[in-house]
Amino acid sequence: MTLDSHTAKRPIFTKSRENxxxxxxxxxxxxxHLWLAGLVYAHIGYWVENLFRLVSKGxxxxxxxxxxxxxxxxxxxxxxxxxxxxxxxxxxxxxxxFTKDDKKTQVLSQLYYFVVVFLFxxxxxxxxxxxxxxxxxxxxxxxxxxxxxVTQYTSVPTCTALSAGVIVLMEYFFTxxxxxxxxxxxxxxxxxxxxxxxxxxxxWLIMMISINVFKTAPxxxxxxxx
Length: 226
Description:
The protein has helices at residues 31-57, 71-83, 103-136, 156-182, 186-213, and strands at residues 13-18, 21-26, 29-30, 59-61, 85-86, 89-92, 95-96, 149-150, 154-155, 222-224. It has 226 residues and is α+β, with helices and mostly antiparallel strands. The strands form 4 sheets. The chain has a 3-stranded antiparallel beta sheet with strand order 1-2-3. Helix 1 (31-57) packs across helix 2 and helix 1 packs antiparallel against helix 4 (156-182). It starts with 12 loop residues before the first strand and ends with a strand.
């Protein structure tokens, strides 16, 4: 049996002294490194959404942002790493689920990861879409034109594609990205974190305030190819 219920839990956050500075880690990584990785994922998410809109509707647009970043993908990356880890070494928060390191165990771990992400996306889109529209009066997306849609907020094809994309990004992109980020001089890293992070979060807050207070989604630019 590969599911080990007796595996000791790891601390979620640890604090240590490294290279004459205090370091706070979320599991294996310095939170400063994870923050920059999250911003990279925000940029990837921006282009993933635009690619989907280009293919499905023939439209490229600003995604209601001034900058080419969607901060919700930063939040998603942190949530995935916090709660599930990576696909071949899946966790439930600090508890490692699969302890063997063979092909069968890796497949089971990836299958578990896919199912959890699929269910999270499926029900998350329904909850977020419904609440957001009730609060702001603005419909952010509508999947009624997609086969196997369940309400206007989610569909089996989009959830499957998103879940598969998450598997690829968290298994084959996340760890190499973290290794590259760890090579950045720490003083430069912090400057990027603070400056880029502040701009991206401010841009996201402007969108949220505009939608929820003024009931209008910022539309900075849009190109229709059809």
